[in-house]
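Appendix B. One record, verbatim.
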Amino acid sequence: MINKQSLIPFLCKAKKVTYAGKGAESRPSRPASHDLQFQEGDYLYIDSYLGGEKFSGEEAVWDNGIPIWCMNYSGRVINEHFNGDFLKEALLHVPEDYPYRGPLFYQNGDYRYQCTIHGDFEWFQGFEEIFYNDVKAYECYFHGGAIV
């Protein structure tokens, strides 16, 4: 059984200080992987992904060395209007109500981020997109949940 009251705030903080917050990468766990870690108290968060413009990865959380939650994701850049800094900016707004990727909707100038989620924290699937002037520039599917 997971303690969502402490896990969800930790997960949101971990996301904000690693990839979204342009945190430093840790030592790769696999050849050519990009790994980011954050630890606080008994919780350890690791985000590990492969690729660049086409990518796939996994975020996971351990409690005292026991894996308790994970999310897999896979996405791609669709055209030259994609802006990685905008994606990270949107992901910094991850809400505790939907602690998976970014908010349901975020816009800054000509860029718009939107996210659709089905399920709850313990079993979910979702899809995020970025549009530049109403033309899709990026898409990513994700799914996961509790593993204890």
